[in-house]
Amino acid sequence: MREEEIEKLRGVVRDCVSKHLYSSAIFFADKVAAVTNDPADIYMQAQALFLGRHFRRAYHLLMASKIVIRDLRFRYLAAKCLEELKEWDQCLLMLGDEKLDEHGNVHDIKDNSAMYLDKDGEDREINITAAICFLRGKAYEALENRAQARQWYKAAIKADPLCYEALECLIENHMLTCEEETSLLSSLQFGPEDGWLSSFYSCLIKKYDKENVVEAKFKELEKESSKSNLSSQSLMCALKDNTDLLACKAEYYHQCGEYQKCFELTSALLEKDPFHLKCTLVHLAAAMELGHSNELYLMACNLVKDYPQKALSWFAVGCYYYCIKKYDQSRRYFSKATSLDGAFPPAWIGFGNAYAAKEEGDQAMSAYRTAARLFPGCHLPTLYIGMEYMRTHSFKLAEQFIMQAKAICPSDPLVYNELGVVAYHMKEYNQAVWWFEKTLALIPSPISEMWEPTVVNLAHAYRKLKKFEEAISYYEKALTLSAKSLSTYAGLAYTYHLLDNFSAAVTYYHKALWLKPDDPFCTEMLNVALVDECRHGTDPKFDFH
After folding, report:
1. Per residue in 320-343, pLDDT tens?
2. What is the dihedral of CA 496, 501, 503, 508, to 10 degrees?
3. Model's pTM, two decimal places?
4. Buried b (16+ CB within 10 A) or exposed e, 383-413
5. Do residues 510 and 526 lie in contact, with contact meaning Cβ atoms separated by under 8 Å?
6. Omega into 192 within 30° of 0, i.e. cis?
7. Is the pLDDT of residue 1 over 70?
8. Do 280 and 315 form a contact (C-beta atoms < 8 A)?
9. DSSP label at 110?
10. Do 105 and 50 contact (CB within 8 A), yes or no?
11. Which residues, 6 or more positions from 468, have their beta carbon under 8 angstroms from its beta carbon?
12. Which of 486, 483, 493, 492 lies closest to 449, judged by CA?
């Protein structure tokens, strides 16, 4: 067979691969490799077998060629075959025992196999070292050695910032704390043309910063378009409306309690791209917070139909049952989600919350502890452990765990709110005031209704310190956020009562009892206030409204 005929057959193989005709590609690649016995053709045949999901045969072909010992790309493809076969120990052996230096970097492995890579000369290539580090990380994660997996994922993204999958694993599996994520991003060596990518990555990491910091990240990415040359101008303009970027924005809205804004944005995104799974997860979370059970039902039905093997689908079913307060059924489906994917953080947290909702503390703690072990960069399991201890009045233990959550994520306002509640229960009212004020300083303005309990708690703490004017100010602020809070009206009434302003106290006790007519505290204190008012006379200064 002449060289021109062989080259034509190679072209046929490439075309078959591009058209996903893998059996044809395997057939012709086998004939080319048999004629030439050229390493490049053997590699092409192995690639065709791999794409056709003949992993064992592809692995055997690579090992039989003997080139696998000295050629990096052969070794990497053989390891990929072992990955698909779930032979993780063999996969690590195939990749070799490369070591990381003290900074977590891996030295570039000498690669003289470019001759086997079928690519356009102008194509930009991801460093093979990064791909190998990433595969090592996946193997260690599958073997449940998450500490090693984290190190190799970090090494992969450091070896080449274009290795997005490594960053995705670190972020989605909560392997790093907020500080570690920021530190990792700042250590990446981006090329001069990758300014947009640096900004994009900064939008992907945890978003518990203050609003102006997070918004600045999004604006910085949009601003990159003005710095770009004309050839990439259209790309940068398109990025402003990119689904991934808008999904990040939706996640930020969710994390700062703007559930309605989050839900509206995710709804619009899912109209545009109904199968964007990251956006779907945020949409489910927002729908659950807003109590949209019909939306959860429809989403769950569609996900189970389209993705029956994905944890997200059964998590959605669990969310629906949790939303309608059928906690036993929700627990069953959260458990199914964890069995399908043990590294899916929302399912573990939902599993714990379903137990906690039924006050089954031991099982809730077990789920939270598993989540805390699996996802060291996620502060929520540790925070929920602290909240469970608080529910059982173990305030010292609660404080310890919530402080651990604070160490993992020092910028989440919910952590400071819970520390304030613990301090209040321990009668450390000055400390409670400090924590509640810190909470309010961290949340975006204007304050949403979600944070009304924090404002009320701050008012309670001021009342305990006998700073009645400050307490009244915060109670009134809480009423602007939610006009139907029994706790606020009762607290305001009691504060006026302590100030001997009996008319105001009576009015607010009545407002509290309008919300809950059988409340024992307000009923009793209303009678006391009426007696006191009769004894001391009415206060002419109070303006009834």
Report:
1. 999 999 999 999 999 999 999 988
2. 0
3. 0.83
4. bbbbbbbbeeeebebbbebbebbbebbebbb
5. yes
6. no
7. no
8. no
9. P
10. no
11. 462, 495, 498, 499
12. 483
The owner of tokens 């109070």 is: 542
Residues in the chain: 545
Kindly write down the DSSP assignment for every residue of 388-449, as one continuous string: HHHHTT-HHHHHHHHHHHHHH-TT-HHHHHHHHHHHHHTT-HHHHHHHHHHHHHHSPSSPPG
Integer Cα distance of 464 and 458 in angstroms: 10
Per-residue pLDDT tens digits for 410-439? 878 889 999 999 999 999 999 999 999 999
pLDDT-based confidence at residue 116 (cuts at 50, 70, 90) = very low
- Residue 147's Cβ-count burial label (10 Å; 0-12, 13-18, 19+) is exposed
The residue to which tokens 């003005």 are assigned: 226
Residue 179 has pLDDT above 80, yes or no: yes
Instruction: Indicate if the pLDDT at residue 160 is higher than 70.
Output: yes
Distance of alpha carbon 42 from alpha carbon 274, whole angstroms: 41
Q: How many CB atoms lie within 10 A of CB 138?
A: 19
Q: Band of the pLDDT at 231, cuts 50, 70, 90? A: very low
Q: Cβ neighbours of residue 229 under 8 Å, at least 6 residues apart? A: none
Query: SS3 string of 455-517?
Result: HHHHHHHHHHCCCHHHHHHHHHHHHHHCCCCHHHHHHHHHHHHHCCCHHHHHHHHHHHHHHCC
3-state helix, strand, coil in the chain (%, to 5): 75, 0, 25
Alpha-carbon gap, residue 284 to 347, rounded angstroms: 12
pLDDT at 545 over 70: no
Give me the phi and psi of 105, to 5 degrees please.
-100, 155
To which residue do tokens 């919530």 refer? 402
Q: Which two tokens stand for residue 5?
A: 């005929």
- 250 with 260: CB under 8 angstroms? no
